[in-house]
Amino acid sequence: MDLIARRSLLAGGLALIAAPAWPAEPAGRRLGFAVFRNGAHVGEHHMAFAGDAAAPVATTEVEMAVKLGPIVAYRYRHHAVERWTGGRFSSLETTTDANGRAQRVSARRGASGVAIETGKNRLVGPSDASPLTHWNPVAFAGPLFNPQEGKMLKVAATRTSARQWSVRGEAEIDDFYDAEGVWSGLKGRLKDGSTMEYRRL
């Protein structure tokens, strides 16, 4: 084998190792997680999948409540509908109630980039931008935006093992995947220093 052929083979092998794999469909087309903050159970995160492998639609429902004794100090609800087409992010619609603060985000990929709109602002992100919704590791190959706040994130994603991706920067998150590539858990640190963990149901 000549030098050029060996280099081509090596480059191809490295690309296969580094490239994010399209996630396998979860059993029953549903995913569920128990959510823990500082070790205390605070809620659940559920996902349902529709469409086919070429054009999947992921619907997310999250509900959490942080208590101080018997009193609910913080309540969070989040709903999202995310669409991909041909292996690329297509659109996202989210509504969030973060302790009484209502937020809405609409994002769509077009010819000039990903247009992201909130109730107050509009920006156009790079054409390969994707939401940080964790279930799809293909998103880690490009820029990421916050699906709740509708802003580009200053983060870098690194594949640290065959089953783990780490996101670092203004977010500190580790996402885990099972042997089939299905999202299986998350560990992260929030802005207030508390820890968050997702455990698959």
What's the number of helices? 1
Taking all residues together, what is the mean pLDDT? 90
Shape: globular
Distance between the termini: 50 Å
Strand order of the largest sheet: 8-7-6-5-4-3-2-1-15-14-13-12-11
Largest sheet: 13 strands, antiparallel
List keywords for this structure.
8% helix; mainly beta; single chain; 201 residues
What does this entry look like structurally?
- The protein has 201 residues and is mainly β.
- Helix content is 8%, strand content 58%.
- It is built from one helix and 15 strands.
- It has one helix at 3-18; strands spanning 30-37, 40-52, 55-68, 71-85, 88-98, 101-110, 113-118, 122-125, 130-131, 144-145, 155-161, 164-169, 172-177, 183-189, 195-200.
Secondary-structure blueprint of this entry?
Blueprint: H1 3-18, E1 30-37, E2 40-52, E3 55-68, E4 71-85, E5 88-98, E6 101-110, E7 113-118, E8 122-125, E9 130-131, E10 144-145, E11 155-161, E12 164-169, E13 172-177, E14 183-189, E15 195-200
Parallel strand pairs: 9-10
Antiparallel strand pairs: 1-2, 1-15, 2-3, 3-4, 4-5, 5-6, 6-7, 7-8, 11-12, 12-13, 13-14, 14-15
Summary, kept brief:
It contains one helix and 15 strands; from the N terminus they run H-E-E-E-E-E-E-E-E-E-E-E-E-E-E-E. It has one helix at 3-18; strands spanning 30-37, 40-52, 55-68, 71-85, 88-98, 101-110, 113-118, 122-125, 130-131, 144-145, 155-161, 164-169, 172-177, 183-189, 195-200.
